[in-house]
Design goal:
The protein is an alpha+beta fold and 211 residues long. 35% of the residues lie in helices and 22% in strands. The protein has one domain. It is built from seven helices and eight strands. Strands 6-5-4-3-7-8 form a six-stranded antiparallel β-sheet, sandwiched between helices. Strands 1-2 form a two-stranded parallel sheet. A hairpin with a 2-residue loop joins strand 4 and strand 5. Helix 3 packs antiparallel against helix 6. It is globular. 32% of the residues are buried.
Length: 211
């Protein structure tokens, strides 16, 4: 069951989003300004301690909302343009917990792998969204990653670098979320897939759904 903090955190972030129509900047994956300040979520001293005390997505989501910092320079290094020249390792969850800065795939990995440890029954997955290509500072930005899970037969999504601390759901399917997410981001989504891994070697196994 969600902790009192987690329920409060979810309510506050939901209220924040309802207080104003947030127009996302389509040229960036960086978080939009929050309507309300992030809650100072309880932070166990180590990642292992967090795994022992957290119970589900609400706990992970609250911590993300309070602590995630977007790394714009890293985003350019991981762009479609530059990723072939020097492959960067995606942050491991324990390292991310110590220093919660990164980009969408770092955050999604933290969300999925953490939830698999503390609540595997929620069936955590990666959601890869492929936007129509967009060039920023000479770099092509196309893919975006989030974490998804199931609760009471519905689909939920979180660990989104664009809106850390936001828990999106319930949705009847991934497609329903993607339709709404495209409108929020102001960008056409040409494909998406739910995956077991963020690794490129999983591409052949992923079911890619054309939009």
């Amino acid at each position: 069951m969600p902790t009192t903090f987690a329920r409060t955190a979810v309510a506050v972030f939901a209220a924040a989003l309802s207080l104003a129509a947030i127009a996302a900047d389509p040229r960036s994956d960086a978080p939009e300004d929050r309507v309300l300040p992030a809650i100072a979520a309880p932070a166990p001293p180590t990642y292992d301690a967090a795994l022992a005390s957290w119970h589900g997505a609400d706990d992970v989501n609250g911590w993300i909302g309070a602590r995630f910092t977007y790394d714009a320079a890293r985003a350019m290094q991981l762009s479609e343009t530059q990723r072939g020249s020097a492959r960067l390792a995606i942050h491991r969850p324990e390292a991310f917990y110590r220093e919660p800065a990164g980009v969408c795939v770092d955050l999604a990995r933290f969300g999925v792998e953490t939830l698999r440890t503390i609540d595997a029954s929620s069936k955590p997955v990666y959601l890869m969204v492929e936007f129509a290509p967009l060039e920023v500072a000479g770099n092509v930005l196309r893919r975006h990653w989030l974490a998804g899970f199931e609760r009471d037969g519905a689909h939920w999504y979180f660990a989104d670098a664009k809106r850390p601390g936001h828990l999106a759901g319930p949705y009847p399917s991934a497609a329903a979320f993607v339709d709404e997410y495209a409108r929020y981001r102001g960008r056409a989504i040409v494909a998406f897939s739910e995956r077991a891994s963020y690794e490129r070697t999983m591409r052949a196994k992923a079911v890619k759904e054309a939009r």
